[in-house]
Amino acid sequence: MSRNPLAQIPTRAARWSATHPWRAIGAWFLLVAVAVGLAMAIPTNEVEDADYRVGESGRAEALLDAAHLDHPPMENVLITAADGDLDAADARAAADDVTGRMSGLDGVAGVGDAIPSEDGTALLVPVELRADDVDADPLLDATAAVQDAHPGLVVEQAGDVTIDEAINERVADDLHSAEFISLPITLVLMLLAFGALIAAGLPVLLAASSVAATIGISAPVSLLVPAEPTVTSMIVLIGMAVGVDYSLFYLKRERQERAAGRSTLDAVSIAAETSGHAILVSGGAVIAALAGLFVLTDVTFNSLATGSIIVVAVAVLGSITVLPALLAKLGRWVDRPRVPLLWRLTRKSRPGAISARLLGPVVRHPVAALVVSSVGIIALAVPALSMKTHQASAETLPGDIATVQTFRAITDAYPSEGTSAQVVVTGADPAAATAALERLAEEAGRTDDFVTTGAQVETSQDGRTSVIDLPMPYEESDDRASAAIERLRTDLVPASLGSLTGAEHAVGGSAAESLDSSQKQDGRMPILLGLVLVLTMVMMLLAFRSVLLAVISTVLNVASVGVAFGVLAIVFQHGVGEGLLDFTSPGFVISWIPVFVLVVLVGLSMDYHVFVLSRIRELIDTGLPVRDAIHRGIADTAGVITSAAAVMVSVFAIFATLSMMEMKMMGVGLSAAILIDATVIRLVVLPAVLVLLGERAWPRGRRTTPGPVVAPGQVPDEVLVPVGR
Prior knowledge:
The protein has helices at about 5-20, 20-40, 55-65, 90-105, 135-150, 160-195, 195-220, 230-260, 265-290, 300-320, 320-330, 340-350, 355-365, 365-380, 400-415, 430-445, 480-495, 510-545, 545-575, 580, 590-620, 625-655, 660-695; strands spanning about 75-80, 110, 115, 120-130, 155-160, 390, 420-425, 455-460, 465-470, 505-510, 590. By secondary structure, the chain is α+β, with helices and mostly antiparallel strands. The longest helix is centred in the first third of the chain and has 35 residues, at about 160-195.
């Protein structure tokens, strides 16, 4: 038995839980019930708009907010011809109809004059709302009534409220679809792995209860770390993935030991000593990877990291306490009721039989296997070097949403309604500030970057703050928009506003916000990557006491991340597979996706890695030669890893079919990377490297005297931890 104090935690927890099963089970359900009660009693403290402010654009927004110059929520009604040229008289009549119907509605602050487009093909009616939470249905009903009254025209509406509602509905529908499909898929895969209903249901039950407990615990935690609206989805995603994985590792080993003739309690104890230790180390590595998100000092990532860390910790706790208790209480009933055909298949297939044959060539020819697999990995990772990232924008919204289509039509006909920069000045004489901003608009209009015709200065009631909007003829994701913001900040604004002594100015707007967020993230990304890799390296060093194994783990993590980033660039930046996945390439990867994929992939891939290395070390410690231990250890664990990877790949692949671009990117990146990680990297690269390193990778201090060769599912008596019969 290992003398490592860390290894004693799961063993002692399992021993107590197995000998006091009802106490352990009751304590677990009490934890879940109390957590759910906390969620009902304590309202969640959600992130506020001000928390998202970053850099100079955030400072500009704060100045506008303090001066009450922030733009009110707006809706726009676009009027175009149904066919042929626009009838000006009919369009004006429709605009008047919009004004009449909208003016009397609750929540409408006012309706502006109709604005014709420069080419005369459209008319736009701006509608100012009183608040962001106005019910959009009466507005849409009014627009529909105008459309019915003017069949020769196309009358459409889009704006802050209607677009937000449509996107929120689509996100909710997508997540509901993913959850609805993923649960039966997970159960089917568990049935294929175990062939029995109870054994298949235990991992799903433990994962689901871990998620429920975490959602409850997150309510009081949000008082310290405000909760981002998407954190619940992150908790469900990570919680189901690690919860099923950990239960699968434990349950598979316990069943193998029972099949080898061990009693239920001894089988549970052996599973705790081996798989339980691997779960503890793996959970620590996942938490370490997720903790790296705090480096970004971003309110969204802080919330996601907090929720994910809690659910991983809860899943680990359940795996080493309530799961052993359930297994001890169920005994051989865990293999009931059996699915006849599946049960026979699982019983007939000897663990590692297929994978052992596949590993044979890798172990015999490690150099060739390493070279061939490395070439493939590098080929997939190279596109990551040119990966372009950008904040989500209108280009990444699903094109089949009616309000999104209308918004794009509005920005095409009215460039001023699209990308723009806001220049804010405070603390200057109002007349001087107005003159300076008008001079700035004139200078900016002489460039190709801004369309300043009709741009007007707006001043606060106290006269201390003034602002001007400078529209740009570019999409927000266009590199020219970012370059224009840079020139505005470094050249145009200082030249025009530099004479305003004692004044403060800032450049904001959507394009500036995207630029500031990207610059902050790009600047901290190397720190994040370095911290995640160092933390996981330290975890591996503490767990296996081998510098070489820690370095190997880090290099393989880098390879997995490189593959994920490369696949993202190939698919979403270069548009490979657009037709298959039903999307139009925006020409970039949404900026938060690589960060999310990095920490989740490093964390989840450590599950497989720790599980494999723990089995190899276990065999080496019993006296098996290193080469044979590598071959047998990877063969023994290949089936479990394949089952666990199949669950995660299937779940993430579901996200790749959803309509929201962020979810599609997340699904493609993670499913492709985990598939390659669990097959090529863990079944080819890892054994090839370990065989080449040989004895050097394994500390001699851990060896025992040579013992009998250990077959899969068996452990010599000297490593048993008796807990009674």
